[in-house]
Amino acid sequence: MASRPLSLPNILPPAPIEARTPRPSSFRWQTRFARSVRRYGVANLARELQVDQTAIYQWIRGSVAPRPEKAMLLVQLLRSVGRLTLEDVYCHQFFVQGSARRPPEAFHWTTRFAKIVHRYGVKRLAGELRVGDRAIYNWILGRVMPSPENAMLIVAILRPAGRLQLEDVYGHWMAVKAHSAMAAPEQRVN
User: Where are the chain's structural domains?
Assistant: First the structure.
């Protein structure tokens, strides 16, 4: 017959509950656009733009982007709290969605080049290329083409991650340009 170990009654007082440290600020509030919104105040901004506060929180969450007329007003209103451009407003959504580790539902992220960049990590690639995250997003969005030197470095860095070739880098840019030219009337921004 096996004997059970004896258990002593718990006579020690419970350990003190440590004070909870405040949760670190969400990554969504780290972009220039979101920081400007926070400084200006969501309630104030909603009142000035004549929108509900939930619309602003949707922009910050990255689920939708502001309509162009609202984006232009945002740039004007938020100028008092920081330098802000339209690019900051629209790149915010891509940053947030990329940080959430899921590509945005946009054509830009469907090419071989973009998928490999996303898998590798935008921040990691930007660090290795010694460029800002925004440069990577501009390449993904098809706004600019990487310089030949950067394109060669991209291929060298990303080749092990997915057998990337130089044609993939420039093919991405051409595909995005062609797609945006064909889909321009269908684009919907909230």
Answer: 28-99, 107-186
- Tell me the per-residue pLDDT of 67-122, one tens digit each, with 9 for 90 and over: 878 888 998 999 888 888 877 787 787 777 765 444 344 678 888 898 899 889 88
Residues 6+ apart with CB under 8 A from 49: 56, 70, 73, 74, 77
Task: Give, in order, the Cα–Cα distances in Å from 71 to each of 94, 105, 121.
Answer: 15, 20, 27
Q: Write the DSSP string, the chain.
A: -PPPPP-----SPPPPPPPPPPPPPPGGGGSHHHHHHHHH-HHHHHHHHT--HHHHHHHHHTSS---HHHHHHHHHHHTTTS---HHHHHHHHHHHHHHTTS--SSGGGGSHHHHHHHHH-HHHHHHHHT--HHHHHHHHHTSSPPPHHHHHHHHHHHHHHH---HHHHHHHHHHHHHHHHHHGGG----
pTM: 0.43
User: How far is Cα 53 from Cα 42, in angstroms, rounded to an integer?
Assistant: 6
Q: Are 140 and 94 in contact (CB under 8 A)?
A: yes
CA–CA dist 8, 150 (Å, integer) = 67
CA distance 41 to 174: 40
Q: For CA atoms 94, 100, 104, 110, give the dihedral sign.
A: positive
